[in-house]
Design goal:
Layout (H helix, E strand, L loop, with lengths): L2 H26 L6 E4 L4 E4 L13 E4 L6 H10 L4 H14 L3 H13 L3 H17 L5 H19 L1
Antiparallel strand pairs: 1-2, 1-3
Helix pairs in contact: 2-3, 2-4, 3-4, 4-5, 4-6, 5-6
């Protein structure tokens, strides 16, 4: 048997074994409570009651049955250079309900990329004010918001 065939067969068997483990764990968990357990070793489906509690810092559970929050989708659209119109709408919706300095900063970044310099500056000033109020934790956002205000001001003058 040629060596390349051996490697392909071994890789296929390994992949099939991983899929059977995930399938077996998915059958054992309740249908409505599936989560994706991500740790440094592997990904597996598990129910919330079967999550190990020994190492909570190394594992992150993501609920697969609920959609992500709008601010996460907006940040994804912004970071991956997708259409920014829905991202801006999601951020405006989120900030109208409960404005936070990190979400306001993301909205100002989106507005700046959409060439709405006045709106970006206004929102960045709001983010700056909220970040200053939460100063010990938000030192980085104070600097980011201040830079965003300055950048929007310069671009608006051009």
């Amino acid at each position: 048997m040629p060596i390349s065939t051996f490697y392909r067969t071994t890789l296929f068997a390994f992949g099939a074994g991983l899929l059977s483990i995930v399938g077996a764990q998915a059958q054992n968990s309740p249908a409505g409570a599936k989560t994706l357990m991500a740790n440094s070793d592997a990904f597996a489906l598990a129910s919330p009651s079967s999550q190990p509690t020994a190492e909570p810092a190394t594992e992150a559970a993501v609920n697969l049955s609920t959609p992500p929050p709008p601010e996460a989708s907006a940040s994804f659209y912004d970071d991956s250079h997708k259409d920014l119109s829905p991202a801006l709408a999601w951020m405006q919706e989120t900030n109208s309900i409960a404005p936070t300095y990190w979400n306001l900063y993301t909205e100002s970044r989106i507005r700046l990329k959409m060439k709405d310099y006045h709106g970006a500056r206004t929102v960045a000033e709001q983010a700056y004010k909220l970040a200053v109020k939460a100063m010990p934790v938000s030192k980085e956002y104070v600097l980011l918001s201040a830079n965003m205000v300055a950048q929007a001001h310069l671009l608006a003058q051009k």
